Predict the structure.
Amino acid sequence: MLKFIGDWLTNKICETAMDELTWVEISRSALENNIREFRRIIGPKTLLCPCIKANAYGHGLIETARIFLSAGADWLSVNALFEARMLRRSGITAPLYVLGYILPEGLREALELDCRLVVFDKDQVRDIARAAKAAGRPARVHIKVETGSNRMGVRLDGLVEFARFIQKQKLVEIEGLATHFANIEDTTDHSFAELQLRRFIEASGLLKSAGISVSIRHCANSAATILFPQTHFEMVRLGIAGYGMWPSNETYVSFVKERKNNFHLIPAFTWKTRIAQLKTVPAGEFVGYGCSYKTSHKTRLAIIPAGYYDGYDRGISGGYVLIRGRRAAIRGRICMDMLMAEVTDIAGVKAEDEVVLMGRSGEECISAELFAQWAATINYEVTTRVNDRIPRILV
Ligand SMILES: *Cc1c(COP(=O)(O)O)cnc(C)c1O
């Protein structure tokens, strides 16, 4: 009997026998460890706001939220209204910050769910004021300031006027000031991040000189939180590192170069399935679509019931899965719901044996970073892409 984080769309958490072809195991102790590590480095006063958008980076929205909060997180941030709705329906009462855009039609519900909203546009502020009136409750907003990423945000030269405009609206209250780094994890040269930080500090100064008070300033993502304590301000928006993954190799290298404190992240994500069929194929035969692989010897193949529908990237080449703690090379193309791997040299393999698609098995480990390398992408995309339909099981 295993505990399912469950069908996240219906937010059903059930105890059920294991009958899924593929599942993801989430380590509770790893998530707890990571949150505690961040609490240690940001100190007791800075608010810790993990980002649980994208189904908690693929880890399961609701249970991850609960674990993060019980391990010491103060706030949670999501991208969209539907995520906030699911969290509230699950009884989560922690402050929620919505990072992304909400359509005007959704604003009233967002306020009724007691969400903090990010603002960057006067029309949007007018819509929020209207929604606040309709909901009969104040809206707490965070001004997103443009410091260099040219995503959402108001430019510095219009910031004070924008803030004054917000102050004129009834039931709209400026609570926060935010920005987001564009080039912090992609490089070990942090000059652009430093420029953005200077602009953010300038923005904060402009509001202060204008007599506009902001109680929560926040700009730090994982890389900034780890590398630059001066970015912590009153809150940090911790994303990928809360799940135990480093934002990038560059961030890791910068960290090791600049700091020597022991700071330990533990990945929480293991993706598993089972062998559906074993077969022996003579030399000189093809495997899979497009006849892209040809056996050069008598080959023992495991047919594995996971494919690109599940989020196993079809572009992967040179990858392997782990069976009995050994590497089994993928042969032929990844199919929609299946893939094939060679187990010729792995003794004792049987049908229904467990297969690790991502994570640890014995001495071997397919990290999200290694998987990302095979798929020519980044660790962020790898775990978020594992289909939400696949159960997340807390271990
Ligand atoms: C996703 C996100 C974060 C977290 O980023 P990580 O690199 O995963 O730590 C922080 N801020 C905003 C605005 C985000 O969208």
Summary: The first strand starts at residue 2 and ends at 3. Residues 1-17 have pLDDT under 50 and may be disordered. Residues 51, 53, 99, 180, 221-222, 237-240, 247 surround pyridoxal-5'-phosphate (CB under 6 Å). The first helix runs from residue 28 to 42.
